[in-house]
Amino acid sequence: MVIGLQGVAAFSAEDSAAKQEEPKFTEKMAAILFQEPSDAFVYKREGRSDPFVPFIEERVEAKDLPIEELTGMRKFEPGQLTVVAIVSSARDTFAMVQDSNNQGYIIRKGVALGRTGIVEAIVPNKVIVKNYTYNLAGDKIYKTVEMVLKQEGEK
């Protein structure tokens, strides 16, 4: 039985030497946490889109544009005015118009009406106004509006 005790004593001496050589758990964790990032994963963007950028972009709104203060005849769109009379002489041609409050105004060729309209011509029975707008491609599109002088008795 003495042999068994010596064998146990020899085994326990080897076991304690192995335990002393083996690092503790906290030392292992510190080595893992503070190791060099040479083998860490790195995302390579070459030829790829950014996965964190949304596919749909927000629309740009016209809030940045300053709002223009309209004065004079630019306050009225052609549909808000009624032609009352057209006066033509050798020197000048003009039209007399009125708004919904029966306030009268005189307009001539070249006067700006509304946001985008310009009086193009004044002919014996109507005033021709040329309005412009922009299409989706950014091209300027013109639209002609005719303000007809109603004969006496017409509504």
Polypeptide structure, described:
It is a single chain. The chain has a domain at 70-148: SH3 type barrels, CATH 2.30.30.830. It has 2 helices and 7 strands, in the order H-H-E-E-E-E-E-E-E. 7% of the residues are buried. The strands form 2 sheets. Strands 4-5-6-7 form a 4-stranded antiparallel β-sheet, with no helix packed on it. A 3-stranded antiparallel β-sheet has the order 1-2-3, with no helix packed on it. Helices cover 19% and strands 28% of the residues. It starts with a helix and ends in a 7-residue tail after the last strand. It has 155 residues and is of the alpha+beta class.
Q: How would you concisely characterize the structure shown here?
A:
With 155 residues, this protein is α+β, with helices and mostly antiparallel strands. The chain has two helices and seven strands.
Question: Would you identify the CATH architecture of the domain at 70-148?
Answer: Roll
- Mean pLDDT level: 79
Which sequence of SSEs, written as H and E, runs from N to C?
HHEEEEEEE
Structural class: alpha+beta
Instruction: Describe the strand arrangement of the main beta sheet, using strand numbers.
Output: 4-5-6-7
Instruction: Provide a count of the helices.
Output: 2
Q: What name is given to the CATH topology of the domain at 70-148?
A: SH3 type barrels
- Can you identify the CATH class of the domain at 70-148? Mainly Beta
How many angstroms separate the termini?
133 Å
Question: What sort of overall outline do the alpha carbons produce when their principal axes are compared?
Answer: rod-shaped
Unreliable stretches:
none
Count of strand segments: 7
Q: Tell me the major beta sheet.
A: 4 strands, antiparallel
Rg estimate, integer Å: 45 Å
User: What proportion of the residues is helical, as a percent range?
Assistant: 10-25%
Strand share of the residues? 25-35%
